[in-house]
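Single-chain item
Fold in token form
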Amino acid sequence: MDHFKGIKFIAFDLDGTLLDSVPDLAEAADQAMRALGRPGVTVEQVTTWIGNGADILIGRALSRSLEVDPELDPELHKEARQLFDRFYDAGGHKQSALYDGVKDTLATFHQAGVPMAIVTNKPAQFVPHLLEQHGISDYFVDVIGGDTFPLKKPDPFALHWLMEKHRLAASEMLMVGDSRNDILAAKAATCYVVGLTYGYNYGQPISDSEPDIVLDHFSQLAEVVKLDS
């Protein structure tokens, strides 16, 4: 298996990478649509709609398509997003679960002294609670949500910010994600990137986005990141 050398920092996406969160997201989106008197949405639909943040997820749910309807009423969109946030928060994220191997692998990197960050397009308000709920909040030195900065993935802004803050060369940073937004952000930041096959990528194979390495299981990360001993 190919591997990386000289990695000093790892940034992780959240939904579809560390956490299987679709059941909770789909339930909140479904409740929001029904509260507005619109047809409900399914887990299967929402699986192909997430990855660009909550505003676009809700735009897709209202449009019932990956392409958000350009004629969508902004006020309806705003109301639907507020409903979604309320239902998602009220649900307590009880159906979300870490993928197999995530906790042990993060612990391995943490014990080896590798600083790590979350770079997700999920609204920042929901992220700390999720990390705490699943017992992984202590592993991350930075937590960046989709609204932490003016620009979100696929823009490389957050990755550039991390490199500047931690004084990293691009060759010392690795991004790990399951979506083309993660791959595009990493390529724009010229850092290394791993694509995971099991997450949510609009129904497309992650290999189409040409990450440096494609992995089927999270625990394989410990094999491909060679730590300086």
The mean pLDDT is 96. The CA atoms of residues 56 and 68 lie 7 Å apart. The beta strands are 4-5, 9-12, 19-20, 97-98, 116-119, 142-144, 173-177, 192-196, 213-215, 225-226.
